[in-house]
Specification:
The complex is a heterodimer of chains A (111) and B (114). With 111 residues, chain A is mainly β. Chain A is built from no helices and nine strands. In chain A, a hairpin with a 5-residue loop joins strand 6 and strand 7. Chain A starts with 8 loop residues before the first strand and ends with a strand. Chain B is mainly beta and 114 residues long. Chain B is built from no helices and eleven strands. In chain B, 36% of the residues are buried. The chains are: A mainly beta (111), B mainly beta (114). At the A-B interface, strand 4 and strand 8 of A face strand 5, strand 6 and strand 10 of B.
Chain lengths: 111, 114
């Protein structure tokens, strides 16, 4: 199963942009790149996903490398509420069993 | 919209016992998936239910079983509990079985096995 590699933790100042990296060198052509985050004492919540092109939504932006072997989740202005564990996940459209969370990146936001 | 709800919130059992956890999906969703999250780890996929059948299964023993009802709600059953089964059990719902569809997670049930 294709897996992802993320830093264990990162730190950011409030109101500043945050770039969360993810490596997925064994990604296959049918794998979508998903990001979820888990706030303390809550279930994970969807952030964004993409296949090949960069994506933007109200929460974040997703930048995908041209070879798709890495991606970066961008939070444009971090708030204290963004402190969470961020998971980069590869999801195959047809084989649900390839849903692998990993350990994620714990983001700490300093006021 | 109530979102995904799970019950109970917390549960304490002893080794060898059996437990049943319940999940109600978000309105309009027909697919329910269950995950186990050990302390400090990411969630691990247990199985997925769609049209009242188990469609996909992760690397979990047969002690873990489930059920989906006609109203799309679901139960997770764990038999012969082990200490290692202590974890947060998460339920997630989505529309359809595609791995691309956004999943909505419930707050989880914290199971402690003594």
């Amino acid at each position: 199963d294709a897996k992802t590699t993320q830093p264990n933790s990162m730190e950011s100042n409030e109101e500043e942009p945050v770039h969360l990296p993810c490596n997925h060198s064994t990604i296959s052509g049918t794998d979508y790149i998903h990001w979820y985050r888990q706030l303390p004492s809550q279930g994970p919540e969807y952030v964004i996903h993409g296949l090949t092109s960069n994506v933007n939504n109200r929460m974040a932006s997703l930048a995908i490398a041209e070879d798709r072997k890495s991606s970066t989740l961008i939070l444009h202005r971090a708030t204290l509420r963004d402190a969470a564990v961020y998971y980069c996940i590869l999801r195959d459209e047809y084989n649900f069993n390839k849903f692998y969370f990993g350990s994620g990146t714990k983001l700490n936001v300093k006021p | 919209d109530a979102g995904v709800t799970q019950s109970p919130t917390h549960l304490i059992k002893t080794r060898g016992q059996q437990v049943t956890l319940r999940c109600s999906p978000k309105s309009g969703h027909d697919t329910v998936s269950w995950y186990q999250q050990a302390l400090g780890q990411g969630p691990q996929f247990i199985f997925q239910y769609y049209e009242e059948e188990e469609r996909q299964r992760g690397n979990f023993p047969d002690r873990f079983s489930g059920h989906q009802f006609p109203n799309y709600s679901s139960e997770l059953n764990v038999n012969a509990l082990l200490l290692g089964d202590s974890a947060l059990y998460l339920c997630a719902s989505s529309f359809g079985t595609s791995g691309v569809n956004e999943q909505f997670f419930g707050p989880g049930t914290r199971l402690t096995v003594l």
